[in-house]
Amino acid sequence: MPKKGERTKSEIIGIAKKEFCKKGFSAVTMSDLCEATGLSRGGLYRHFSSTDEVFIALLEADKDDWQAEMDKAMEKGVPAIQMMGYYLEQMRTGIAEGAGGLSLAIYEFMRNKQVESVFLDARYDFAVNMMKSLLQYGQQRGEFKPCNLQMEAEHIVIFLDGLQTASAVIPFSDEVISRQLNNILETIKMEER
Amino acid sequence: MPKKGERTKSEIIGIAKKEFCKKGFSAVTMSDLCEATGLSRGGLYRHFSSTDEVFIALLEADKDDWQAEMDKAMEKGVPAIQMMGYYLEQMRTGIAEGAGGLSLAIYEFMRNKQVESVFLDARYDFAVNMMKSLLQYGQQRGEFKPCNLQMEAEHIVIFLDGLQTASAVIPFSDEVISRQLNNILETIKMEER
Amino acid sequence: MPKKGERTKSEIIGIAKKEFCKKGFSAVTMSDLCEATGLSRGGLYRHFSSTDEVFIALLEADKDDWQAEMDKAMEKGVPAIQMMGYYLEQMRTGIAEGAGGLSLAIYEFMRNKQVESVFLDARYDFAVNMMKSLLQYGQQRGEFKPCNLQMEAEHIVIFLDGLQTASAVIPFSDEVISRQLNNILETIKMEER
Amino acid sequence: MPKKGERTKSEIIGIAKKEFCKKGFSAVTMSDLCEATGLSRGGLYRHFSSTDEVFIALLEADKDDWQAEMDKAMEKGVPAIQMMGYYLEQMRTGIAEGAGGLSLAIYEFMRNKQVESVFLDARYDFAVNMMKSLLQYGQQRGEFKPCNLQMEAEHIVIFLDGLQTASAVIPFSDEVISRQLNNILETIKMEER
DNA sequence: AATGAATGAGCCTTCATTCAT
DNA sequence: TATGAATGAAGGCTCATTCAT
């Protein structure tokens, strides 16, 4: 069972995530976190000595479990279109709920901190590779058109990230979002006749 | 000839743009701008009383530039492919030079300022409309494939914005960037045969 | 005839007086005076190089001409009660019109500038002496009760000054003012029977 | 026992009072208070976020003191003359020590803050009422002459305030002050025979 | 572990004042 | 004389961070 300290830490991270989503990275101060968590300055500092630390912990806790999920689905032979549809739907919901917000904070955080850039690269590579394997899987099953896997995967990942990021600030209508996400699917699908 | 004051203002904006591109919005302080422009605090404040003001002036100046340039090119009958190519090349250069563009700064700026959010919507709409008219222009000249103008324009704008934004933080290789930008052009171009 | 410069100076002083009455001394900045007079910074500085200078010039221009007036009235044998009544009435009107205001600015100005304190002493002495000679005149004519001239004059001067000063900030009703001013007269008048 | 924070607050107020008495309101800066109290900027700001706040707290603390003291004395049946004498003596000492009192600072503070003007009115009313009850108390005990309570109280309050205010700027001799304060007492005392 | 008082650095903002035009 | 751009000092305010309790 986790110790008291660990539990407090998790709580802090959870609350901090909301703050970062709402305000971005640099606009969140330790004071804000004190207030939001109800901890005193000293109390908060016992666990994290800067917003940087909180943010990094948050990112680590936030790693997606898409890979595992996808592997399982592939094994089961779930149709690629269905998997992609599910993924896009998740994204749509996230955006609609205004939760897409962490990306902006991440960008804000990483910029001006060349040091850890590696982290972000890895995150991006990971996303691209996942997308690549999904596209390939779809092509093998004859559901997706043949295409330049690397390029298409990159394109989709970058586009979705852009959509998510922009959504944090521009109030896209549901219609626009749906239209765009749909378009992704249409673009890669084998043409029906 | 413009008065001294106006000239100084323009200079400030030009220099500020570089700063905002490099560091995002909130990381740029009035002090930074003083140093970068070589002005004293008071001198800077005579023209702008906050980074907000500088930024807004910058955005306004930025918009005008594009509009004018494109109108002129269309009048002259410049080929759509050339115009698009030029636009994409500009973007490529900007990214290559590490001037990840203003997008990130804009997002940062707008978040937490619901008031002016309208401003951002307008900017987005403006970009989409510009892209739409470029696509239409290309179609009329038989250079571009027919397509759903609105959707395609939105897609391109969001993608390019995402690419630019991500570039500010992820060190994409020249190859990746070129490949992606090229792909945009290929996607809309009329198929040769 | 006064030169252009002198005329501008007078105008500045006139406008400055209003400002000082309204806001006190330290709250008035050179910028305020620029705005109020419609002059540019440089223009104003040509005439006065600080609010101090403006204020001093203002005080010098503001010297009362009570002495002369009073001497004349005494020669004519105007009743002391009438003279005192006139003086008090002037004060009442001034307060009612909210014009009592300069005293506060003067205090603000003099405090922290021990140097020129002499100026204020003289102003006070002058007022006391005037009051003394008025009281004496009234006593000689049998209109005023005998009293300790010095003490009574001081008392009245200090009281009236306090009343004026307080009026700048506390919205005394007309009734209160009249009652208090009346009381002064009653106190010094020979009892009727 | 009061917490550390409260104690510090009181200390700040005590020291601030001296500063305000010496320099008036607007001439006192937060920096001055830092220096005077020995606190750092942040330390001071933890307790008060502006000189306004300090000043208001000061006024409130000030008021309470007087109220309590007088109530106690009346209960004990202390002679009115003695109470009045004590009050006047306090004032004399204050003036002699160059602590011209807060009046000037109060006036400076209130001007330009119409909002809180009510506060000042209340303070004035409070002072008048206190004086009224003291006069009444003295009359009931046969120590003071009968008089128009309201008018006399107003007169005394305004005069003393004027004396205090003027003292901050005009270097009255001890003799003048004593003479004037004495006169107040003589004016209200029952005539001995 | 937790509290909250205190520190000090850094940014923001306003002015009096100067100076080229 | 007048203009308004520019300077630099002074003061206001906020935060990350430390520390005694």
The CATH homologous superfamily of one domain in chain A is called Tetracycline Repressor, domain 2
Supply the CATH class of one domain in chain A. Mainly Alpha
The total of helices of chain A stands at 10
Which descriptor suits the 3D outline of chain A? elongated
Provide an overview of this structure:
Chain A is an all-alpha fold. The first copy, chain A, has a domain at 58-188: Orthogonal Bundle (Tetracycline Repressor, domain 2). The first copy, chain A, has helices spanning 4-23, 30-37, 41-47, 51-61, 66-76, 80-96, 102-110, 117-140, 149-167, 174-188. The first copy, chain A, is elongated, with a radius of gyration of 19 Å. The termini of chain A are far apart. The interface between A and B is medium-sized, with 34 and 34 residues. Chain A binds a DNA duplex (21 and 21 nucleotides) through residues 4-5, 8, 29-31, 39-47, 49-51.
